[in-house]
Design a protein that fits this description.
This protein has helices spanning 8-16, 25-37, 45-70, 78-92, 96-108, 128-155, 164-190, 194-220, 240-248, 255-260, 269-279, 291-298, 331-334; strands at 234-235, 287-288. It is mostly helical and 348 residues long. The chain has one domain (8-309, 325-341). The longest helix has 28 residues, at 128-155.
């Protein structure tokens, strides 16, 4: 298990940011799950739809928290992120270590063939037909496709993970996951609780996976550049709803600066993006003020799903550090070839 190494200043930023209030959604989400399980206060359809949406959005927020744990940035203590990540990953059918390894490469090789998290969209060996089919299946069935994408790092013969201790950690997490879910499903079967389980867990989880897939596509699908600030869509909300949603999702919507600076405290991402825009007024960044406008910009990419070379980018040059196996302070400076980074960003 690799550990993200933060500087004293980065740890200070992690410790002083506000984290606990970002979990407030879980109170409403847990209450909605219980209400669905007990069909309270009523089984009338509009109550059920409303409660399902609340539960689903809370589950989606937990997936954003899972992302934060992969960076080990929940607080200044890595073990908190690791064990919280393992707990969340078990419920999402995703090994925490597999997700972290994929996400490290996602930052290091954004939109490149080595970006395993964006497979198959980043892989120039995949056909457009295959990517279309996978994309259209992923929208309604992200519940299955996301665990499959991350499991490839553990079970594929071509996995980029070569360290035996990391492979062992992934296999152990999948084994524990199998045991936990065998116990859960066995208990449900023993007490004949299939209906409340489907209504209170399976359906909200499915809806949450659809939301998560839209988030993933909105941030990445159709983006050509290897430059983190130009190769991702960033949303900085101009209205209260977008700002609240950004806050409880650990500012993951502010995606460009997060991709360039994966160790920066999430509450500093908007400030970082503002600085880049002020320093480079002639650069047109893919920054949106509402999530709907970012989704609208994404829609054409659903017909030609891909990133990087699969949407017309030239083949990337050789990275400065080919063995990227952990998060760095500045991806553009420490990993990417200068040719793959905008001139305006090389000295930032």
């Amino acid at each position: 298990m690799s550990v993200t190494h933060y500087t004293a200043k980065e740890i200070c930023d992690l410790e002083t940011k506000s984290t606990t209030p970002r979990f407030l959604h879980s109170l409403f989400g847990s209450a909605a799950i219980l209400a669905l399980a007990f069909q309270w206060p009523s089984s009338i359809w509009y109550y059920q739809v409303g409660l399902t949406l609340i539960a689903a959005y809370s589950m989606f927020c937990w997936s954003s928290c899972f992302h934060e744990t992969s960076h080990q940035g929940i607080c200044g203590k890595p073990w908190v992120s690791i064990w919280l990540g393992r707990a969340i990953g078990t419920m999402l059918f995703v090994s925490y270590t597999a997700y972290r390894e994929a996400h490290i490469r996602h930052h290091a090789y954004l939109n490149k063939p080595g970006d395993w998290e964006l497979w198959p969209y980043s892989d120039p060996k995949t056909s457009l037909t295959f990517r279309r089919i996978f994309c259209w299946l992923e929208l309604p069935f992200g519940f299955f496709t996301s665990p499959f994408v991350y499991a490839r790092l553990c079970f594929s013969r071509n996995t980029p993970v070569k360290k035996p201790e990391i492979m062992k950690a992934m296999r152990m997490e999948y084994a524990v996951m199998a045991i936990v879910w065998a116990l859960i499903l066995g208990t449900i079967a023993w007490f004949s609780l299939w209906k409340p389980f489907i209504v209170a867990w399976i359906i909200p989880h499915w809806v949450a996976s659809v939301i998560q897939t839209f988030r993933k596509f909105t941030e990445h699908l159709g983006m050509q550049s290897y430059d983190p600030l130009l190769g991702t869509r960033t949303v900085i909300g101009s209205n209260l709803i977008t700002r609240i949603c950004t806050y409880i999702n650990f500012d993951i919507f502010v995606h460009g600066p997060h991709h360039r600076h994966p160790k920066i405290a999430h509450n500093k991402l908007v400030e970082k993006m503002d600085n880049y825009q002020n320093d480079n007024p002639d650069t047109k960044y893919p920054v949106f003020t509402t999530y709907m406008s970012a989704m609208k910009h994404t829609l054409p990419a659903l017909w030609k799903p891909g990133v990087g070379m699969n949407v017309g980018a030239p083949a990337p040059k050789k990275e400065k550090w080919l063995g990227a196996d952990n998060f760095v302070t500045d991806v553009a400076r420490e990993i990417l070839s200068d040719r793959d980074v905008s001139n305006a960003h090389r000295a930032s």
